[in-house]
Design brief:
Layout (H helix, E strand, L loop, with lengths): L2 H11 L3 H29 L7 H13 L3 H13 L3 H14 L4 H13 L3 H13 L5 H13 L3 H14 L6 H14 L3 H12 L7 H17 L3 H12 L4 H17 L3 H13 L9
Helix pairs in contact: 2-3, 3-4, 4-5, 5-6, 6-7, 6-8, 7-8, 8-9, 9-10, 10-11, 10-12, 11-12, 12-13, 13-14, 14-15
């Protein structure tokens, strides 16, 4: 028998029966937690997030006996999916209090803060997650989203470029490219915006419709400011198939100007009239 096995046996023999019972209870508790995790994943995969109340009650009972970071994280995820954002954030706070070096907890709280439009708090959380070793396309894309909302376009572009190098699923790269295109457009780097949106539009039939609409709108607007009016008309027309209200009105105004530049006065007037009917431009009350 090896010395390692002898040491292991000696170590086990040193445990009394009273030591073993808590271990068995711990195993049982962990098994219950694992079962809840599996059920939660199953419900989410099956899009049964409206049926999460029983899972939440199980977690409530476990937390009442002993609150652990893992349990608070699980319950926070459940509350988040039940649209209880305030409750989710409270549980994320508790998880981080109990396990302050959990990159996962900071990552998830950052996402919840983004949903709650608390972008500065989200940015701080994503910074913490990265400093604790979370290096993934998701965290850099998420931090870029907060930076974009805070007007930090150059920082967002850098993070999205980093995310693209880390994104293993090439079919998901359209997300980073569309976000980066919006940032390029915001800082008037129109050619870069056109390049990214062209890559996204190439996947138009494979991505969500609203993403394709956004890509056409950004590229069309970039063409407009680059004085490529025919290209702008084509893209803005494609975008407007999925737009309505004020969003459509803004694109109509741009297309109207394009038609004017192309000496098509009738279409220019028609677009401007439709834009006005949709409420553009907004008039100041007297």
């Amino acid at each position: 028998m090896s010395s390692l096995k002898i040491l292991a046996i000696a170590h086990l023999l040193n445990f009394s029966i009273c030591h073993c019972l808590p271990a068995l209870a711990l195993d049982s508790r962990q098994a219950e937690i694992s079962a809840i995790e599996k059920q939660l994943k199953k419900d989410i995969d099956a899009d049964k997030t409206s049926e999460l109340e029983p899972v939440k009650r199980q977690l409530d009972a476990l937390i009442a006996t002993k609150g652990e970071a893992q349990l608070f994280l699980l319950r926070a995820d459940v509350k988040y999916r039940m649209y209880d954002l305030k409750g989710a954030l409270s549980d994320y706070d508790q998880a981080i209090l109990l396990q302050p070096k959990s990159a996962k907890a900071y990552m998830q709280r950052g996402t919840a803060n983004c949903i709650g439009e608390n972008y500065q708090a989200a940015l701080s959380d994503f910074n913490s997650a990265i400093s604790l070793g979370e290096i993934s396309a998701d965290v850099f894309r998420s931090r870029a989203g907060a930076e974009e909302q805070l007007g930090k376009k150059s920082e967002a572009i850098a993070d999205l470029t980093k995310a693209l190098t880390l994104e293993k699923d090439k079919e998901r790269q359209w997300q980073e490219k569309l976000m980066r295109a919006r940032c390029y457009f915001a800082i008037k780097q129109f050619e870069s915006a056109i390049k990214d949106t062209t890559d996204v539009i190439a996947l138009a039939t494979q991505i969500p419709e609203d993403a394709a609409v956004d890509a056409y709108k950004v590229r069309g607007s970039s063409y407009f400011f680059g004085a490529k009016y025919n290209e702008a008309v084509a893209d803005l027309s494609a975008a407007m198939k999925g737009l309505d209200g004020k969003a459509k009105a803004g694109s109509l105004v741009l297309r109207s100007v394009c038609y004017s530049k192309l000496d098509d006065k009738a279409k220019a007037i028609a677009d401007m009239e439709e834009a006005k009917a949709l409420g553009f431009p907004q008039r100041q009350s007297q």
